[in-house]
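Methods: holo model generation. Sequences were used as deposited, without trimming of termini or removal of tags, and paired with ligand SMILES retrieved from the corresponding compound records. Each pair was processed once, and we did not select among multiple samples. The sequence and adenosine-5'-triphosphate SMILES for this entry were:
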Amino acid sequence: MTIPAPTRTPTGSTVLDLVLRFRALGLLLALAVLVGATASVNARFLSGQSVRDLLFAAAVTVLLACGMTTVVLTRGIDLSVGSTLGLAAYLTADAMSGGVPVPLAVLIGLLVGLACGAANGAIVHFGKVPPLVATLGTLYVFRGIVYFTAGGSRVNASDLPGGFLDFGNGTLLGVPYLFLIAAAVLAVVALFLRDYRSGRDLYALGSNPEAAALAGIPAGRRLMTAYALSGTLAGLGGVLYAARFGTVDASAGYGMELDIVAAVVVGGVAIFGGSGTVLGAALGALLLTVIDNALPVLSIPPFWQQAIVGALILAAIALDRLVALRAARALRKKGSHVG
Amino acid sequence: MSDRAPADAAPLWSALRRFASWDAVIIAATALFLVVAASTVEHFGTARNAGHIIVDLAPVLLLALVMTLIVATGEIDLSVASTVGLTGAAMGWMWNHGIALETIMPLTVLLGALLGAVNGLFITGFGLPSLAVTIGTLALYRGLAYVVLGDTAVADWPRDFTGWTLGTIGDTGVPNIVVPLIALALVVGLVLHCTPIGRAVYAAGANPVAAAYSGIAVGRLKCWLYVASGAMAGLVGVFWTLRYSSARADNAYGLELTVVAVVLLGGVSIFGGKGRLPGVLAAVVLLTALQNALRLAHVSTETLTVVTGALLIAAVLAPNLLTAAGDALRSRRRRAAASL
Amino acid sequence: GGTTRGDDEGDGPTGTGGTANPDAEYRTGLSFAMLPKQVNNPYFEASSTGAETVAAELGGEYEFTGPSDASASSQVSYIDTLSQQATDVILLSANDPNALCSSLDQARSGGSVVVTFDSDVDPACRDLFVSQVDSAEVGLALLEMTAEQIDGTGEIAVLSATANATNQNAWIDVMRAELESNPSYADMELVEVVYGDDEDEKSFSETQGLLQAHPDLRAIVSPTTVGIAAAARYLSGSEYQGQVALTGLGTPNQMREFVKDGTVTEFALWDPTALGELAAYTGAAAASGIITGAEGEVFTAGDLGEYTVGADGVVTLGPPTRFNAENIDDFDF
Amino acid sequence: MSEAVPVVALRDVEKSFGAVRALRGAGLELHAGEAHALVGENGAGKSTLIKILAGLYRPDAGAIEIDGEPVDLHDPSAAIAAGIAVIYQEPALFGDLTVAENLFIGRQPRGRLGRIDRAAMDRDATALFERLGVLLEPDRPAKGLSIADQQLVEIAKAISLDARVLVMDEPTAALTSREVERLFDVVRALRAKGTAILFISHRFDEVEALCQRVTVMRDGAHVSTDPMGEVTVDELIRRMVGRELAAMFPRGEAAPGEVVLDVEGLASAERCRDVSFQVRAGEIVALAGLVGAGRSEVVQAVFGVAPREAGRVRVLGRDLPSGNPRAAMRAGVALVPEDRRQQGLLLDLSVMRNATLVRRGRLARFGFLTGAAEQREAAEWTGRLQAKYGRLTDPVATLSGGNQQKIVLAKWLATGPRLLIVDEPTRGIDVATKAEVHRLLSDLAADGVAVLMVSSELLEVLGMADRTLVMREGRLAGELPRADATEEAVMRLATGQTAEAR
Ligand SMILES: Nc1ncnc2c1ncn2[C@@H]1O[C@H](COP(=O)(O)OP(=O)(O)OP(=O)(O)O)[C@@H](O)[C@H]1O
Ligand SMILES: Nc1ncnc2c1ncn2[C@@H]1O[C@H](COP(=O)(O)OP(=O)(O)OP(=O)(O)O)[C@@H](O)[C@H]1O
Ligand SMILES: [Mg+2]
Ligand SMILES: [Mg+2]
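and the model returned the structure below.
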């Protein structure tokens, strides 16, 4: 029996890169078209103030989308982000209005987020509760806690330190501080997920949990990291929310979770884990924010706006799917092993 | 394996565990709760209150029926509440245009089915994840509801019809709505547990590839389930509109999470392939009755929110912990026995 | 065949029946329950304080209960509960004018007095409505304040609460009608109505959208406390501060800062605590047989003074108070 | 040899799953530089023993020793740290990660600031694959690899760990002789370097070719350990099954009847082209070829689970529509797929539900299923195939690999097919059962069923087939009648060296 010597055909496959780049490209393209179209109707859309407003609005969504992405990559989901944000925002603002120094109050917000995230992680990992169930539960629980602590009271802008509010509304060279923070977080998380072993472990966990166990990947630690990160970023989001809006009551962040999930999905992160990037998710978040902001500018009647957002979400995921299908076909054509 | 050690308590344990399926646990818990609440909470045990509970739980129960099937196939439908809103709005629009209510009602259910078909086509036709698609249609359908009715409410529904939704069968004190509820629950229950279709539903949820290799048209099956879900949402749209005599774009806002919550609480696995309808029905009753009892006991809304969430987590956590504890106990016993 | 619109004429207002005894005393030991649109809302907390004081004064029991989401269906469940508990007086701010009717009917047939305040239901379904102000009066006041601030010319826009909010829609309708008919407003144009859903964030971004969509906008009218605060916060941090006028309905505590920094010149509101008080007195009066809800009946609402029941069983608190730099420090709510 | 301290020793290990006692006093010693075979029937406990060694399960009793010291392998990373690398029976890859990352997950080469050095990783992967003689691109995603390629990646991964102990649980079940040969070369090199090797296989030729020592297990217990040369295969089989074995390939003379399956010009998704053949009643036709030759694709396109791009498929003279397995089933076709976990079974559902899934419509009375009929049917067919399981209501996932395969067979045999397509029907099945399956196929053929069999095991192909169709790169390379079918002839067609050789 003769064994033909394998000859390796030099292919240098970059299909994967291409797909990833193309996906981001698609989002960028959609963004550009939307911005261009809106600006051509109403030039004010590109004015400094308007762009600033957009970045302000995007900052919190981008932050939360980063956290959500890390969780979704592990085949999880964090529906409690809105409630966590509300809790952190209220406790931070309340602490500040009670005279706690700003840095300490900010720390409180982050710790609250961390605690919420850790609770989610523990329920998911140690309790073996499916993430959707666990975080749907904590969505209610955390929101209930906000109701308990806040009741009908509200922290008004006048109760907060001026410096904190100035920071919330301040800009550096025209870019809001809040957005800079979000961008920095995005860069760090992106680097972590792409270039660090523990980041890759998250992809592995989401891609095939059983195989991850066999490969000795510490699932518990990684899951806790992902959920804690999501929680902490929601906490940070809460702090930024307080700084930006000044007024915080028990409803802060109510119903935000589905927007964030939508952003992540539009950004090309597979809802069943294992693939996607935070950059995509951030672009998804940005796209949805731009849509939200552009529709009123385009003088779309308010009753139509929500419908259009829904239709665009559908279009985005359908497009993404088409791209993925083409990529898969390309892969199949390349074959693998025919010697 | 014929020669089992007689001292091994494992068969007893696993028999017990098999008997004490989640279904049984949640049904028992519900029954226990009803008994305890009736004897401790003032006004809870009255026939009138039972009527209130039943009318209150109707929409969630109806939506949960089909949602159970959908979740059992490993999918989800987050757009149900928006579909209720849109079909209700459409109903109001038709009423405003002078169409007879007898015509409107079937048309509304049909519209629901169409909206469900849109979900189904996106999910099975394009192969998109249902969570993502139905988040999209959640926004789309609610938005369209506003497009249809705007900020107006249609409220001049004929009393014969609105009265029926709240009325009782003769003087029995049993709400009219009980009849269709039981009928639909029976139909869905039988289909899920006693027909080839039900087997196919579980198969599609447990392993869609293997199901396809077994000749099950998984895509078609799921698509029909979404149609059914939409039609049911249309039916709930009719019920909701008549029961509150008000067709508004924001009808049933946010109800989807409650429906998902009861389905999960009822022991249906979010990954598909597992779960039974009786558990879900018990979960619907438990949640509604619990909320009712807490209200009657002057407990604040906050507590209600927390309890709902905690219950949901506990429902899945408890059996897991029990199994883990049982396993630990057994292996300790075995280790001890082996070291003798 | 078939049942079409108009086949079924609703019954007229039922009224409480019976006759009023203007000289009767307020009954003691009444049970009061206030059911706001949603709990955890500072506005209703203030009303609740007022009602609670009255309840205590009259030696009654008091409960503040309700859903955490502002939906009619959740309110129905709460009404059912209250009617089971045979609460004497239900003070209700309705999320929907029609959806609550059947439950309210049940409650009333069980002997409860239903007084709506802030936001009414179909008059047939309640005994009395305590209106914060007359709808027409609010609409006119809003328009008047706006006109003063922009010299009666230019584009104006409305930032409302939810699209279905009964009050807001009524006021906006009054404004629309007045803009068309009143020659002194001929140069003003209402270009758009947007909805912030009484959510801070949404109102905030809707304000942004308005300003971008309408470069020539002169004024924003926000007839809701959440909306005006959000809009004020946006304006105060933007380049539009001082360029675009903002007025509407807001609470002094929330708006003080913006009046001081010049973002807002003048806005209006009634005192929600007083509204709560009046609602409680009205309910107690009806439960004590002092009034029945018929037009022209008179009762005394403690320190608030004497009130007369108007047409359709409406009791009106009084004209809205206008707040500006001169008087704002005199108020704390 | 036995005086040296074993690298790894398992002593008197016990393990139960609920009521099932998978291991009762199993033991094993592995020595440096020695390949040790572990054989036993399906469900004997081989995989369970390995999973204990891998740190996946903790034993209920017994000890694990490394270099004579007792250790506690509480999780897989502990086993990896102890120098134990495992190739599992079922490949488990990360579909979304690249092939290279699959190899090095958790230990990727790092560059500056601890960042992963992708270029280095791809280089290492390429080097590994060259060693194994495999053509796989390191930077393609693992998704879409055939089961054989997946197995090869698993092998490369385990080898790259440079472990002291290499455990292989049926690594060759999905491979053809070419890859097996390559694998063995590499394993022999490792063995020469002093690695201790544990090899599980149901193929005795492989065991003989690779191993120096062989341990037999039965019903979770250790039966014997001997140097390879000192026992015969027949003796091993007798110890495994506890009785003499019937003939392996019980094939009588075939008397082919009418044409049951007629395939003309079949093409599907670039993986097979222009395939035409016929299968007659009472005949067993084998599809042979190298891994990835497109055999599975052909049968999947025939059955309708893979889309057909061109060509026609006729069963008993009736055209089958494309992409419609239900129509195929109605026409009397059954397909036992190659990947039982992905395509064959609902792992979380019970044995009963799996066994009766395709018959659910027939078992219903007035449209309703009560459970009794399903139970009867399931008990009958799993019994006929002697599948070993606890209860009919146990999830299939708890069965051993071979017994899972029997459930898939039972599920399809119950439909009483006119045309039975089996794709790797005996993958992972022990000798005794394999003989059983072979007899079953023969009996079915004798009863007039047309059988189309895809197999990577040449012996099976040669022993069972009345005709052998050989595929190469998606096309039919030739057809061999039983008389001409020899190992050389098949391989020549499969590798495309016909012209040169002649
Ligand atoms: N997770 C589990 N839960 C319950 N039973 C199990 C589990 N894993 C294995 N078993 C049982 O343990 C026994 C041994 O299984 P194992 O997989 O070790 O067999 P094997 O020797 O590898 O067989 P094969 O050759 O078929 O792969 C079988 O009876 C099987 O049903
Ligand atoms: N899902 C898939 N995506 C991409 N390529 C695939 C897929 N399945 C199979 N292939 C490739 O298609 C070719 C033919 O595969 P097929 O499974 O039909 O071959 P086979 O002869 O049955 O081999 P095997 O022994 O691997 O089953 C192979 O190169 C295989 O790698
Ligand atoms: Mg095995
Ligand atoms: Mg194959």
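Residues A 332, 335-338; D 144, 146-149, 271, 289, 291-297, 338, 456 surround adenosine-5'-triphosphate (ligand 2) (CB under 6 Å).
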